[in-house]
Amino acid sequence: MQPRPLLYAALFATGASLPIPAQAGFYSGEALYAVCTADKNGKDYFEKSYECVGYISGAVDAFNTTREANKLKSCIPGDVTINQLRTTTVDYLGKNPIDRQQSASSQVFAAIRKAWPCASAAKAPAKKKSRKRR
Fold first, then answer.
1. Is residue 122 part of a domain?
2. Longest dimension (CA), the chain
3. Cβ-contact 94, 30 below 8 angstroms
4. Residue 129 resides in a domain
5. Does residue 125 fall inside a structural domain?
């Protein structure tokens, strides 16, 4: 089994040291798509790759933490890799360019939910109306 928390911390720490322009708002889906689809021959490809994977991993961890805080389990299968999360997110962003104006975290969430939807809770049977005894 991989030490995922250590891997996430290393990737996030690497990405945190990269220069990112300050924005007065959320990191956009457009910005995430740009770093995740960087030219493999570009001199900054590895830095952008780390930024991409670090952001997606952090967003997914935040979503899972929120679910746990609400006593819900993660909907993402345990054997899903970081690369699969990246590919799923990039594919989603590529197919939904109009949505890239929104926050990157909302787009990661949408991509992940589409790929691995949470099983809907089985509806509880409706209670039968009880007749009042007179």
1. no
2. 84
3. no
4. no
5. no
